[in-house]
Amino acid sequence: GDVQQVDEAGFAEYLKGPRVCVRSDQKIDGASLPAGSRLKWVSTDGDKVVGALPNGQKVTLPAAEVDLRDSPTDKIDVVCTSARQLLGTKYLWGGKTSSGVDCSGLVQVSFASGGVVLPRDANQQFDLGQMTGTRWSRAAMRRGDTLYFLNPQGRISHTGLFLGDDQFIHAVSPVVVVNSFNPNDKNYDPARHASFAFARRLWE
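Now predict its structure.
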């Protein structure tokens, strides 16, 4: 779409007040709003939410596809729900939409749906938050923690999102899947279990 120019005062005004965070890719009036887009909240009417773009244009979105909440628990719900909505999406290196996504792109867009901006690559995302788990100790891990996996050279090469109950979601070829750390689970992936190294948490 076209780039809209907004003056400094107008943009400062746009940043005030509640925000609408788009949970999944939307096409509105010919415009594309990718998951993670943030708009200025205007009004809510039943199952519809009206948001405003920086140029003042108002768009109406399904209430089920946006989020207005701010508490850490609510944000974690949004992040995990957003990730699950990409389940089955094809793997695409460098991708971060429902048309194709890679591992760090999945984590990035999922957190963007909760209003959190993360760096693009897994090794950059690893620098954020506090350590909550390692390959030797997963007891303190909680839903919404980011997971990091090592390649044979000992470098971070893969990331995913912990869903709780030993389950995690991640983007691998050919599609986004849910796997498990539990050897008795049908979704157990021994290779990923062996390469798992760290978990980190952005919120308390």
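Residues 8-67 form a domain with the SH3 type barrels. fold (CATH 2.30.30.40).
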